[in-house]
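Encode chain A's predicted structure.
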Amino acid sequence: MAASASDCARQKGKEMEMLRHIYQSALESFLNYMIIDRNFATNTRESYQNDLKRYLLFMQRSSIAMEKITNQHVEEFVGELYDIGLEASSIARNISAIRSFHKFLVLERALVSNPAENVHQPKKGCYLPSVLTVEETMRLLAAPEAIDPPGKYDLRDKAMLELLYATGVRVSELINIRQQSLYLDAGFVRIFGKGSKERLVPVGSSAVAWVRRYQSELRLVLVQRNSDDYLFLNSRGIKLSRMALFTMVQKYAIMAGIKKNISPHTFRHTFATHLLEGGADLRAVQEMLGHRSIVTTQIYTHIDRSFIKEVHKSFHPRG
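Encoded structure for chain A:
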């Protein structure tokens, strides 16, 4: 049994190395094409190289072969760029680099089509995912409960959706939550954000109830020796991947009849927007989101102009 496991690990390592080599070779060919055929400036080439290295590393870690990359995979990577707080111009440059790279591969007949062709370009000053209305949010949260007959992982998915909306955490933060970081009796969860910066985020009663139910009814079934105390597990007993979470949110968005192009990151923006529309203090929202600068929070939490107008009307002496 041990030898078999070792052989599987060795085979997996070979596959990953082969994938890395294929990605590296394709990138080098594209960079040469930029200089020789397109006469791109050195600075442009270096920017594309840095952007594409990060993009291809993301695909490599997800074990996605070049020809298997889809629009959904590219959108998931763009979601990660939102997560790390890149500005609209930087995200637009990344998308441009990815499109050009795949277009080159199509011209070289290494790919049949360009998976990045229809990826949405962020607008200047407004580059965040669409925010859900309260009604849309409730429909999306209710989607796992509407499946008939119930699926094996509906309870886990329900708990994850509830926790996403309750806390506004980043994708990476959610999938890395461990049970020891839960303080459900007190209504808090400890989150480790960028640079291992730690924060306590409040959790509402609905999310608390669903997480507890998931822990007692399903996680006990999924847990394996290598589960390492991660809260949300997949069928193999290990923590979920970003792509799994992205796919799950897309699935329930379709079930809920939501037409907007959303991702797990949409919950973060929705969380902040709904709090501010409800009258929450911007500094408190900043703390919950884990932003260093209040400016970042202001960018994330655009508010409907109708709401701002109503606040002005209600509180200004000359309203």
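The domain at 2-107 is CATH 1.10.150 (DNA polymerase; domain 1).
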